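[job 0417] fold request received: Calcineurin-like phosphoesterase domain-containing protein
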Amino acid sequence: MRIAIFSDIHGKILLPFKLVDLYQKETGNKIDFILQCGDMGAYPNIENLDKATIKHAQYDRDELGFHDDFTKTNHEIQSFLDELNINMICVRGNHEDHDFLDNLEKESSDKSIFPIDVYERVFVCRSGLEQKLETEDEVLNFVGIGRIGDRKGRTENRFIQDYERKEIKKLLKTKHSFDILLTHDKDDSQSGYGMTEIREVLDNVIFHYHFYGHTGEPFKQETDFNGITQSIKVNELEFNESGILEKGCMIILTKENGELSIEIVDQKLTNKMTKFNWKDQKNFVKKI
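[job 0417] inference complete; emitting structure tokens
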């Protein structure tokens, strides 16, 4: 089983799928799922953009990619996604239309993940619930925790909600380990910011890997304070001033014979997908 992991895509919903397609063609290695660490930029209605997204969208239309490409059917995109046949499972970030996501989550209260796009290829997982990805040969267990924490007692819906805290409390009682903890925020108690619930989970439940985004830091890998979990900051999926993606924006997690390993995708591969060519339809549509 191979999983591609991304973070902070900010409206470029199609880009992870295109990078996975490129990776498969360049390496011959099949990807089974995509996991995404939040800040999808899931804004179906432009009227509900937050201030930061409005600011960035003024000079970069990619910020509105969910609205433009994933709320109404584009038959070329649909054909590409159908042929690729891979789903992306996300946690919420802080730059999302949470009213939109809250309504979808309530409508899907009996499910641990729910689709948010017209193609039903982009899913959001409910915070604190045990999740399972399966192929013919392997099973990968993970938990997602979305939104961000707050040390000031604010309750607006970009911050973790009480019902999610209740699910996390249940998780703390589990007796088994997980392959992955997937979050948007992190906990950094020493600096006084982040989500305290993440620290509590990492101190009480065994995870082999913790992937997160949000902080604005570059890619880094280190052992968590618990001495067990490998903590990985996934770099934002943003093009730099030269129009290329930074190191550590695409991670491949492999589970084979029950063993986990990661690959930091080389920039020689990701550099082929630039700010100036990634939306070129020739890259993902087969001409008939």
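[job 0417] notes: Residues 283-288 have pLDDT under 50 and may be disordered. Helices lie at 14-27, 51-57, 65-69, 75-84, 98-107, 162-171, 196-204, 267-270.
[job 0417] exit 0
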